[in-house]
């Protein structure tokens, strides 16, 4: 059936309603954009940033840098808060940045996938941004469905995510949400994009009303998103976030027992779904990653940006955040490290994780 | 497996090679953009059109209008050739347009899906555009895989298509192709889009070389495209185009026998894959379309733009261009028209089509 068929529209309405639950928002404009995660970023910029706007961008990893690049391509001025990679911004730093001038928006990444850093104090940051009359824009690509994203409570004016992270759906859509304040800003002018023009796209995702064709929706991806969201809500947000935290809490001492060290120094600023770690000395990271993929069928991400070739990014996202996967991963790495003579006992990582699981179950 | 895995990269390379065969081009830069058909349009504009450029856009339907809108959003000046819907532009009209000024590009739609008009004289138009030092940019959304698209022979500098038309793949990718002249123009500056920046995307689709991550590719869609292209080439381009022409040649007198009239008056300017027709008098088009969908499981498109509510758009694309489907469609419409007392014999459309099939087989 086609992308304007009434049966398909029912699927769209349901997907929208479920997305609102995940984003913990009442925002009417909560829809998937027809592109991968970064297309949501570009949608926010094309619709909400005017040329000559001054935009504060927190840069603490690859994705903050990408936002800054996009904002400046659309003709706005970027004021960077440049941080050491692996750290997050403090409310104090944001307050200080706003003290210097008037800015139109603040853009930050909640879960920086390149470093595993988890932005804290979101509510407080939201308050500072609003006191200064700016829009609070958030990259929730890796956080949505894996940890709290409280759009309304935190005062986030607009956010975007991806489907292939904690929703466990193939890549290809970017769920976004905008509140009325953001919608008013975008309605004041024509978007500097046709494909991402939310004023027109809104008329296609027009709940309960006549739908107006904009572009052909990637319908198969919307079916997949619908099913992914259904599974998230079936598990329940609370249970899902707890599961992510529990498995992260077990993986962490396991990796440390094997000699890995986290890029993010402060434990409370580490993401539960993405573990970015330096390897023990004396290992060629690319070769080791390939061996683990070939021998144990486990795929590990390489470092991004300045960590390329220096670190690993281990995902424990959505359906793959399980006790079984944590165990298999630690045992596989243990076997390889033993072969390289780095450790004597291949099971020490696994044992460290088991201890955590046993304690949390008792 | 991930979007940077060597096994996936093999699929990418094969998809690229097959796309070149469909586009009949040697262009290295022949790749699918991560969005639906219109995202290819936006990619060409964001990468090839500078602000203050003067761009001639042929407007003979919805999609020409969309191109003009996009070009102007990116700050360029649009010079329209406004034509009656259902007609195509002549080389003489293009020559005349170029006589007035210097222009940077000419943009036209090869297969205008809103009217069923098939642009003719592509090679001659390409020559005129190049004599005037401009880029020749073509929308091949509905044409690719259903009728000839000869990028190199016709001198097309850049083109885009979609997957859900004659490739019979779900919507979600936009295959594009750019020649060296177009690549030189885009390399001269930074694209006014991050998501569609071909300079960066090129480094991900970097045949035979190191791949650089840009955005996570919609891998499931690329698998689907790969399979769709494989099936097109298995059938063979010549056989496939002939099949489209044969079934169109049979549907046409069938629809006319039932009292339908084509929007495109000149028979040689009608597309084989899209039949846009006015209904016989005394029928409510929406209701009739719904009945045919509910009773016979056949989906017909409504009119677009100025033909909304006034005409039908019947697709005979890719796998659905078959003799069986032509017959079922004409019989279904015939039944419904008989119920409404518009015709006495429900089979007259079918019979007219049969006559054509019999003659072409003898």
From TrEMBL, chains A, B:
GO terms for biological process: glycine biosynthetic process, by transamination of glyoxylate. InterPro entries: Aminotrans_V_dom (IPR000192), Aminotrans_V_PyrdxlP_BS (IPR020578), PyrdxlP-dep_Trfase (IPR015424), PyrdxlP-dep_Trfase_major (IPR015421), PyrdxlP-dep_Trfase_small (IPR015422), SP_NH2Trfase/AEP_transaminase (IPR024169). Its cofactor is pyridoxal 5'-phosphate. Gene3D superfamilies: Aspartate Aminotransferase, domain 1 (3.90.1150.10), Type I PLP-dependent aspartate aminotransferase-like (Major domain) (3.40.640.10). Residues 3-300 form the Aminotransferase class V domain. Keywords: Aminotransferase, Pyridoxal phosphate, Transferase. GO terms for molecular function: alanine-glyoxylate transaminase activity; L-serine-pyruvate transaminase activity. GO terms for cellular component: peroxisome. Belongs to the class-V pyridoxal-phosphate-dependent aminotransferase family. This is Aminotransferase class V domain-containing protein. The lineage of its organism: unclassified sequences, metagenomes, ecological metagenomes.
């Amino acid at each position: 059936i086609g992308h304007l068929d009434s049966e398909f529209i029912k699927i769209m309405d349901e997907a929208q309603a479920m997305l609102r639950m995940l984003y913990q928002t009442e925002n009417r404009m909560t829809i998937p954009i027809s592109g991968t995660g970064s297309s949501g970023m570009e949608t926010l910029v094309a619709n909400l940033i005017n040329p000559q706007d001054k935009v504060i961008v927190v840069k603490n990893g690859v994705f903050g840098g990408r936002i800054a690049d996009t904002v400046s391509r659309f003709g706005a001025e970027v004021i960077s808060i440049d941080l050491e990679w692996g750290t997050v911004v403090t409310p104090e730093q944001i307050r200080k940045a706003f003290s210097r001038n008037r800015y139109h928006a603040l853009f930050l990444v909640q879960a920086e996938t390149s470093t595993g850093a988890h932005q804290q104090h979101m509510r407080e940051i939201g308050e500072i941004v609003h006191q200064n009359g700016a829009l609070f824009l958030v990259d929730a690509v890796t956080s949505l469905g894996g940890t709290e994203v409280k759009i309304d409570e935190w005062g986030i004016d607009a956010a975007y995510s991806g489907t292939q992270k904690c929703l466990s759906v193939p890549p290809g859509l970017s769920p976004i949400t905008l509140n009325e304040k953001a919608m008013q800003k975008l309605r004041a002018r024509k978007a500097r994009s046709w494909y991402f023009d939310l004023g027109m796209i809104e008329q296609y995702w027009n709940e309960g009303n006549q739908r107006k064709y904009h572009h052909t929706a990637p319908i198969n991806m919307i079916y997949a998103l619908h099913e992914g969201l259904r599974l998230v809500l079936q598990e329940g947000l609370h249970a899902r976030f707890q599961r992510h935290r529990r498995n992260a809490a077990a993986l962490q001492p396991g990796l440390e027992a094997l000699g890995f060290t986290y890029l993010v120094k402060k434990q409370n600023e580490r993401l539960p779904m993405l573990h970015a770690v330096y390897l023990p000395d004396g290992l060629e990271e690319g070769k080791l990653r390939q061996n683990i993929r070939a021998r144990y069928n486990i795929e590990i991400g390489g470092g991004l940006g300045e960590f390329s070739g220096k670190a690993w990014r281990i995902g424990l996202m959505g359906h793959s955040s399980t006790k079984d996967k944590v165990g298999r991963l630690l045992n596989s790495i243990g076997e390889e490290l033993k072969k390289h003579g780095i450790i004597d006992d291949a099971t020490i990582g696994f044992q460290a994780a088991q201890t955590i699981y046993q304690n949390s179950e008792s």
